[in-house]
Predict the structure.
Amino acid sequence: MRTALLTLAIVTAGLAAATGAAAGPADDFEPASCIDNGGIGPTPFVDIPAGAFFADPVAWAYDNGIVNGTAPDRFSPDDTMTRAQFATVLHRSVCTPAAAASASFGDLRAGAFYLDAIDWLVAENLTTGIAPGQFGPERTLTRAEFVTFLYRLVEEPTGSPPAGFADVPADAFYADAVDWALYRGLTTGTSPTTFSPDRALTRGEGVTFLYRLHTIGDVQATFTTLLSGLAFPVALAQNPATGTWFIAEKPGRLVRWSGGDPTTALTQAVGQGAEQGLLGVAFTADGSLIYVSYSDPSGDSVLDEYALDGDTIMTGTRREIITVGQPLKTHNGGAVVVGPDGYVYWALGDGGGVNDPDGNGQSTTTLLGKILRIDPANPSGGRAYGIPADNPFLGTDGTFDQIWLYGVRNPWRFSFDQTTGDLWVADVGQSAREEITRLTGPDPGKGANLGWNLREGSIATPGVGGPPPPGHVGPVHDYDVDGNQSITGGYVYRGSAIPALDGVYLWADFYLSTLMGWRDAYGVESAAIGPVGGQPTSFGQDAAGEVYVVTAGGDFRKLVPA
């Protein structure tokens, strides 16, 4: 990471007031120009309890002129919504566009408040009525009908994962709409297994669906603080056997926490310069071993292994697995991950210096500028680890067998998708681009060349690079460095608490302090979710797929539904 990243510590507010576009909405819907998604003001309604799920949606809809009350001081959130009322609020939510012709339904009252809205619905092919010549304006709208109207409004995007509600038949006219609504974050159902499609829609539910459609760009999630007062935490991992978190503090302490006060699991003497320190922690799948990555007092990168008794590190079992000399105090990398194949992956930066002066990134005769893959369970060749038989450079003269992929500058954090096994690498750029690379297939990343120092993100490295090198794998997303920025790689969200984020790769930038999301299911997309609430140094993920973050200011936080 850039040197300044490891010297700053700022703690700010949480994610409750997220801004920006959604991380992974399954459509291209944009709020109309008349809609203000800024602040939410007061309403005159006395029947809207503070904290009710519809409180903010009602205030938003009232502020934007989408709804009025049923009386000057009442909204009646539990009353059902008619088809005419729905048509009107939907029409207002898109700025009441005029239709070229009048609808030919015979059951519409002359001069009724809803006529323009129904004309528009027909003109936009959002409805053909309930029967030939009938719209059914006074008929109650069901939850299934409502999400279907919204689904048609966003042009029926395909590909949403099945919602899995037991009361939504796969061949129902509304099935695709419900799948989309869950994936989009408009609903979580009436229970974890039910959507209640035939239940009458209430006014409170109706404005909530609309509110989420317009503002789910601010994904309904927030970070809640679990622990504060840590000393510059920079890495974290959960013991899969016990659920206890282990958090690495840069100055050299490994903290153990499962609630209450944290305790010290290990103290490690480390180099204290620039990007040195205690930098990574990982567990084997059964929780019997822990790997600790750090810079030793001389500045070299070291990976140690310890046996565990529950959450107790058995210090007498320490094995030094591998040590790699570091020429400078920057670009040390340090992330360690036990992959889904059971092997240990370890990231090392290019050794520092402007433009990788020694060409380490492109050289396979050095371990710098690489992600290594080793097998500590089967030592061989006089080393404390073995080389997996399918490593790409095994047996190749003049190369290092440990290399899994190369061409990286400072891959501060990388991770595997719990569901697909894809490898995600976030590489800190120099002066032009920050980048995220997604590596897929049965052996994700095997032998891949990510391009540094010839390529910085998707462009030729200013002052150095030319065309992409042979075997180059470019980023799925990169962004301009506007001043001093530094990407903090994260995880693909696979939890159940925030369905709208399923399959979204979550990451941040240390200096922008904004939680970001990337998903490619509907085309390349990277979008802001909201502020992290501090400068993010590392993310973590539990066995259930939920995502956590630690900040330079000393907080450990969990991403939860708002």
Summary: The chain is about 10% helix and 25% strand. The CA atoms of residues 390 and 446 lie 9 Å apart. Helices lie at 55-63, 83-93, 115-123, 143-153, 175-184, 203-215.
